[in-house]
Fold each of these.
Amino acid sequence: MSAGSTTSLLGTFLFRGASAALLALVLASCSTTAGKDQITTGSIPKSSRPMDTMNSGDLAQATATFGKAYDANPKDRDAGVNYANALRMSGRNDQALAVMQQVAINNPSDRGVLAAYGKAQAAAGQLEQALATIDRAQTPDRPDWRLVSAEGAILDQLGRSTDARGKYRDALVLAPNEPTILSNLGMSYVLTGDLKNAETYLRSAAAQPATDSRVRQNLALVVGLQGRFAEAEQIARHELTPQQANANVAYLRGMLVQRNSWQRLAASSGTKKAVQ
């Protein structure tokens, strides 16, 4: 994965571990100001882009822009949420959490703020607190599938895979065939070493019209871990630039030629991870 690219989840998964990748994908779908980690500013080309598609330069620019807006008016809800998201995507999790704590104090009943606050807590390793915050953001009579799925992601990181999969299936009742949920259900099986079930759900996710390249990169990883590298390479190259694809394929190849690749991957999921 190129140093400036944040487009593919495969590099994130391999470098940071399974739990981090799982949270990166699921928690990115939690509702904030626009339903995902997205920025709106005239300083960024085309004005609106998901943060996880930005290179390091654009992300640094976005962080500076929202930081100035937040400093000018710390009570500006949107500036605070966007600034915290940018900080978190940059790996500055403690700073992101501090910003979201203040935003949540000023907006204690705002569902979008609570969702973003829970995301920041999870990224900072406060998993139990994150579950409680996301539960507060949920409305029982109008449940949000993104929040239900986010609960599943946190439960997976806590090692409660059965409970996590129950949440994903609840989310699928609310949003049938939603690729984000299907992908995270697949990744849940990756965390427990069940690669066949993982592949089933990831293939279903990749087949949905609204899917994105991150889902396909996760599928490529699972296929590769089962020894079908030629197929994994073909999947990994889909919808990526040649530079991104070559970098991902090279890293995947290096990972899979080692006999203990799965053991290393599984072990890495048990350590403390940063959430992208």
Amino acid sequence: MPFGPASRLGVSLFDETPPVEWVSGDTADTAETVIRAVYRQVLGNAYVMDSERLTVPESQFKRGELSVREFVRAVAQSDLYRARFFTSCARYRAIELNFRHLLGRSPRDLEEMRYHSTILDTQGFEAEIDAYVDSDEYQSTFGENIVPYIRGYQSDACQSLVQFTHTFQLVRGASSSSLKGNLAGNSPRLNALVIQSIPTAVVSPGSSGATFSDPSGSARTRLGVGADDNGKVYRIEVTGYRSKTVKAVSQFRRSNQVYLVPFSELSATYQRIHRQGGVIASITAV
């Protein structure tokens, strides 16, 4: 795995792996690869036992009776998906997971969440799935024969920096699962954050604290010496990565260094680290 921004954010595998596409006339082995890729994406990287596989839709896809898009729909509307990501989850958790699984991104804003909540209220679960799979965005991005993939870290999938940060509340690296890996369980990750348009800390999956609960969206207040007028203090984690474009040799000899700085000094500290050849792995409120 290369050492760079994608690897530090845990998305290097997504970044380096080309989309999986079915081409008419492909071999049976390729069909099986596509089927596995659909299960992996639509079921949130969760393990699927042989007894849980959808044998009828799989057979229809292999015979050419279903496109990749229709096979995605069949998996997302199955009892397996419903049990894992709908009936066992809070409503807004189910909606944010639908975005992750079917469009590969986080919800853009409150209105988009409300839109899908209204569909659930008025038309039901299957219509909610159809709203993603039949959308113009799905068609223009994946078409009929490309398996959906995680893309919420890419600029063309985001309308704001806030939405970019929210992606990492849904995807904690290429090996993370929608079912496990966070103490929040089946509770929504983004509900209040989307409502208030609050960005969240982007923390490397390998960083200290990355396996614990998500940031609440508001920094704790530091009192006494060292606190600025706003009372917010930030933790900056810096790597010793060589920066050829700024300084030939990094002054950060250790693998990681950590700074705790008030908000008033955040910009100056960021610029100083950059000049000295360091790379900021994460900035989090403490």
